[in-house]
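TEACHING EXERCISE
Course module: macromolecular assemblies
Task: Read the component lines below, then compare them to the predicted structure of the full complex.
Student: A.B.
Group: 4
Components provided:
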Amino acid sequence: MTKLFDRLLIKIKDLIPLLILFYLSLSEINLEYNKLNFSSTNLAYIIIYYWVLKNPSKLAYGYIFFAGVLSDVVAGLPMGTSALIYLSIASVAAYVRNVTVTVSLFSDCMTFLLAMIIAFSISFLVLIIFKETEIFYQNIFYNFIITIILFPFLWIIFELSKYLTAQKNG
Amino acid sequence: METSRDDLVIAIRSAFLKKGAQQKFSLFALLIISILLIFIETLDTKPLNIMRSIFKDGIIKIASVAQFPNKIFFKTNQIIDQHFSVYKENKHLKIELNKFKKIDLDNSFLQAENNRLRIILGDQSEQKFQAILSKVILDTESPYLKSIIINKGLNHKIRKGMPVIFNSNLVGLVVDVNFLSSRVLLLKDLNSKIPVIIQPEGYLAILSGKGDGKPILEFLPENNNLQLGNIIYTSGKDGIIPPGIAVGEVNSLEANPTVNLFSKSDQLSFVNVLTTEVAVTSDF
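Instructor-supplied answer key:
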């Protein structure tokens, strides 16, 4: 019984990044502080990048695609836009994983910055070409900056949790 | 040089085309599917629209459940905030109440006078709009779109372009309709443009969303005599939104004055959708 419970616990722990990704895609929280808006979907970018880079088995590409479609429906974007953004971030992470040997916070931050530039460029292109809507660039720029700033903090938290889990498992 | 190019090709192949141990799809295949999906979204055919509506309705239902913890959190936060400011608010409301009592008296006099003058002019055309009460099931303010989703759709005779009000104040317009849900574009969204009239001077203008909470007034006449606190109503010039719905008040006197909206988008639980089935009763 204890073994079964332990196995179940491990399975749930493995699913945590995926569950967070789906939750963020569906809930779309918008935090406002002194005219600075930050959308929770940008946290999804960090989660996708980190887990595809470090442990892609925990975040299958099919699920990332599906989370993107969910996010589009909730946010009112053309279906496929967020999926394309999420997958482009995953692509950069997968490429970086294949070409890098040594891992450091700095190198991950730099490559994440590149992934963000690609992701935001894709979102602009799709929205301008397919949706023909006006875009509030200032708001998106704030989101971009806050996401970049948040990345190292979440990176440290994820690494710490990984380290603690490894220690617990001996 | 040759080796480094080979390495690059291998890395790209490995990242995009190979399926990992736990992956059922390659990144490349999913990227192509995403692009195809965006193209399909632009197609406007009946079977596709039906499928899209059913799919979106399903996801919106799931999302409304997923947003439940957020709603509880923000609601609790609001209640705590309100409790702390209740004394100050009470004092302020008493002053406001006296002010509004006086306005109400003036209003009823003006309304009676208006009706009398209409009869004298022989203009008895009256627009009747049916209001459909709807529940706000999702409040999504992404960096790209400021909108809410309501629980009424095509099945409840809701169509694109219909105005949405809360407490007699304009909230926004319906921009996307599914069978059981609709998306309402809020006035503060960058893509929101509403023809308005500013009273008491009667200036016509366009209320344009800025994306950050306070919309602005555009195309005002030059050398206008706008005052802080002037009330803004819909003008009905577009033929879709009925005239006379309160929108907000003038908040600043810049080149493009900002507007304080009466409807607070974060306070919406229920709204009314005005159907544009116009019943004209005219003597002519």
